[in-house]
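Reading a protein record of the kind used here takes only a little practice. Each token is a code from a learned vocabulary of local backbone shapes. With that in mind, consider the following protein and its fold in token form:
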Amino acid sequence: GYRTVELSRDCLLGAAGMMARGHEFHHSTLIPRGSLQYACAISDARGSSRGQDGLVTGRVLALYTHVHFASRPQLAAALVDAASRATSRVSASQTGV
């Protein structure tokens, strides 16, 4: 269904508090074996809470919600910027700069 995503912490998509629209195509039940860190709170089209999404580990962000970047273009820009910074770090470490 349609979702509103609110970043609950700074992550690859931007700063905490930023909101966007999207669609959740799939879901599952997760039985964690340790603590989990989520990047987003999600709500449905009626505004009812649908829990959390966006598992974060290291530089990885995994979402079930397919974010519609046109609803908040800053998210796409933040993602491209994060990828660019990561690429720069890898290039610098390979060249010794």
Helices lie at 73-95. Residues 74 and 94 are 30 Å apart (CA to CA). Strands lie at 2-7, 19-24, 38-44, 49-57, 60-62, 65-67.
